[in-house]
Amino acid sequence: MRMRTWMMRRRAGRSGPYVWSALLLAAACAPVTAQEAPPADEVLVAGAVLAAPPADRAAAEVRAWNADGTLRVLRQGTNHLICLADRPGDDRFHVTCYHRALEPFMERGRELTRQGVSGMERQRTRWREAREGALPVPDHPVMLYNFTVSDGPFDPLHDDEGRAARLQALYMPYATPESTGLPARSEDGSPWLMWPGEPSAHVMIFLPPRGGG
Known about the structure:
This protein is α+β, with helices and mostly antiparallel strands. The chain has five helices and eight strands. Strands 2-1-3-4-5-6-8-7 form an eight-stranded mixed sheet, with helices on one face. 22% of the residues are buried.
């Protein structure tokens, strides 16, 4: 009996270090991998709000694209902005935030796109519906913000925002060069008025990447 007990202790002593090494390795590796990968929605939200002014990011509503071209809400908002996350399927990183008053006009554009209506036909359809009173447009100036990185992959949690080009638009429905003093085109990159006289008339303001990239 003593010999048997001694043999069992000896075997346990020999295998013990290997068992403990395996357990420690598993405990060290598995949890770290899970913690290092942030939730996908968290990354989408962090990226979407980069288009917004910093003071408005925390309270903006954030939506993400579905495969069928519709949108789902990732985070409810409490301020005046709606932000759209980067849409997968192309080589650039592009996000947009706009004033809630623009939502009917923007959603109608997405709906027409899903129906196969694009380009100027889509624009003219919305303009006609706005003039007929069937499609609401803002009755005061409102902003839209674009944030675009075209020079390779972009990680919204770690990469420098300075890589992005920012195209901003001040929507002023039915505005004209005469009513605003703005030109209908720009030769030097200064602000100009796009779609003058139309329901979606807006001032184009381009901010290149910091450093001139």
